[in-house]
Amino acid sequence: MLNKFRKDIERYKAYSGKNSLVLLFTQQGLWALCVYRINNSIYSSSLPGIFKKILLFFGLLWQKWIEIICGISIPYSARIGEGFYIGHFGNIIINSDVEIGRNCNISQGVTIGVSGRGEKRGVPSIGDHVYMGANAVIAGKIKVGDNSVIAANSLVVSDVDPGCTYLGVPAVKINNNNSEAYI
């Protein structure tokens, strides 16, 4: 848990050039990530059932407080890799079953959730080094490839090729530009 959170802080430091203490006091995204990392480590632990439930109850209250003050909802059961960067706080919703890879960026207004019918119903699996632009919606049982870009205001409901940029409603591949410039 500490190692992953340390990697999160390193990403924030690389963007801002500020020290860790300043970032911890001023970045709502880090507040949400801190609560998520702690609660996720409890959820993933091998603690006896009753202790885990008690700790998760208080963790859930803490998570709800962060949702209220920051507008960022990251359930403890989501699987998020190290180096996660929340560019701007507000209106970020992540489904509890989502898997997000390492070194991904998420902007304000992004929703990553459940959608679809029958066999296509489910949640996205997002690869490493993915940039998700402001107000993007990524929904359904889809795979978002490594190093891809989801442009602002896009609705992604089908698989995204690695190393490509997708834009639109519904999102379509517009070029082969990868996320390197964004991440």
From TrEMBL:
GO CC, one annotated term: cytoplasm
Which Pfam families does the protein's record reference?
Answer: Hexapep
Q: Which reaction does it catalyse?
A: L-serine + acetyl-CoA = O-acetyl-L-serine + CoA
- The enzyme's E.C. designation: 2.3.1.30
One GO term of the biological process aspect: cysteine biosynthetic process from serine
Q: Which GO terms describe its molecular function?
A: serine O-acetyltransferase activity
Q: Does the keyword Transcription apply?
A: no
Q: What class of enzyme is it?
A: transferase
Q: Which UniProt keywords apply?
A: Acyltransferase, Transferase
Q: Spell out the family assignment given in the record's similarity comment.
A: Belongs to the transferase hexapeptide repeat family.
Q: What is this protein called?
A: Serine acetyltransferase
